[in-house]
TrEMBL record:
Transmembrane segments: none annotated. It comes from the Eukaryota. It is found in: Endoplasmic reticulum lumen. Residues 1-27 form the signal peptide. Residues 47-404 form the Serpin domain. Keywords: Chaperone, Endoplasmic reticulum, Glycoprotein, Signal. SMART domains: SERPIN (SM00093). Belongs to the serpin family. GO terms for biological process: collagen fibril organization. This is Serpin H1. Pfam families: Serpin.
Amino acid sequence: SDSLRLHNLCLCLAVAALCLMVASATAEKKLSKHAATLADNSANLAFNLYQNMAKEKNLENILISPVVVASSLGLVALGGKSSTASQVKEVLSASKVQDEHLHAGLAELLTEVSNSTARNVTWKISNRLYGPSSVTFADDFVKNSKKHYKVEHSKINFRDKRSAINSINEWASKSTDGKLPEITKDMEKTDGAMIFNAMFFKTHWDEKFHHKMVDNRGFMVSRSFTVSVPMMHRTGLYKFHEDTENKLFVLEMPLAHKMSSMVFIMPYHLEPLERLEKLLTRKQVDAWLSKLEEKAVAVSLPKVSLEVSHNLQKHLGQLGLTEAVDKNKADLSNISGKKDLYLSNVFHASALEWDIEGNPFDASIFGTEKLQNPKLFYADHPFIFMVKDNKTKSILFIGRLVRPKGDKMRDEL
Ligand SMILES: *[C@@H]1O[C@H](CO)[C@@H](O)[C@H](O)[C@H]1NC(C)=O
Ligand SMILES: *[C@@H]1O[C@H](CO)[C@@H](O)[C@H](O)[C@H]1NC(C)=O
Ligand SMILES: *[C@@H]1O[C@H](CO)[C@@H](O)[C@H](O)[C@H]1NC(C)=O
Ligand SMILES: *[C@@H]1O[C@H](CO)[C@@H](O)[C@H](O)[C@H]1NC(C)=O
């Protein structure tokens, strides 16, 4: 029986070794060529869309997920025909990509970057396509859009607008565990197909903040308006760059498993972000990132949750999606089999939570030379940020924090 036990042990080891091989093979699995192209294109879309939105007056915080926007565009391509469909590909700079590769590539990209287990971040994404009650969704469309874009389909009657909007908000709240209680108060165009994205993203830092290193501080929204926010502090070794010519700091903080990272771009002092936004091109960001160097940095960040909902319909129209959003021109007949729909709304709503949690840090470097004379990164005024993916090089989020939630502080002299 000893030999039997030994035999079993060997078998177990062999199985374990096999499992390890399979696991590492999956971990190192490369992105397909089409998914890699689309990842790259979605990074261009990130900057185009951000720039387009930044022109909007009275818009404060911005929070968009370019890869999720790309995936919603894929859904429009799936439902579109002729030039309505080909315009989508132009917006994605993917005119040469075949339909099947477009859909499979976008699906692969989103599955890869939203894998919470592999990346140790929480990223819940829910997508829903609403159509007017008169519409009949074609079976093929339902099947393929579920498969590639994980979208639910629903008909909605807007005769009672209040209750229609309430039911949309209830769906968003439920699918984000209550993080997005309201994604819209009202809606102008209620007669078309509507895409809704509801997301919740929570960072898990590669090195966590200490729970005791949190206190209330002022965040200056403008010269005359300061709000009180909890601020978390830690000193560590981070990739950092100070652009003295443009008077700004760039800081990169890895998220757990180092498969993605949060990049902050912040002016030295309080100022409207317009100046930085004029510099914000993909080329410039790549140039900044290439200059990052590991330094001791004393980081202070607002410990807040940013909840933003944008209607992207108009912005996508301005980026070239002119037909799908036009009632008279749209051909979305692959959705219903009839030319009876246009894209009347694209609601893109996300909650992003900055918290202290993360992997345990190596405390042995505290008090050593390595952390002496740290650079200061004190985020008490508006900044731009991105969540960059390390593997696909796509941008998971891009945005700006201008006004965090918090009570107004008494004016100080
Ligand atoms: C639209 O549907 C038809 C018929 O189901 C299909 O052959 C065609 O490929 C679809 N077009 C697109 C752009 O998906
Ligand atoms: C997510 O990643 C884990 C660990 O790398 C892997 O086992 C799993 O299959 C992935 N899930 C998907 C849906 O790809
Ligand atoms: C991230 O990893 C930590 C342990 O290091 C674990 O407690 C946590 O649940 C993980 N989070 C996710 C979203 O996987
Ligand atoms: C990106 O991944 C590489 C390889 O795993 C790692 O060495 C590097 O630190 C990562 N970068 C960031 C910013 O997390």
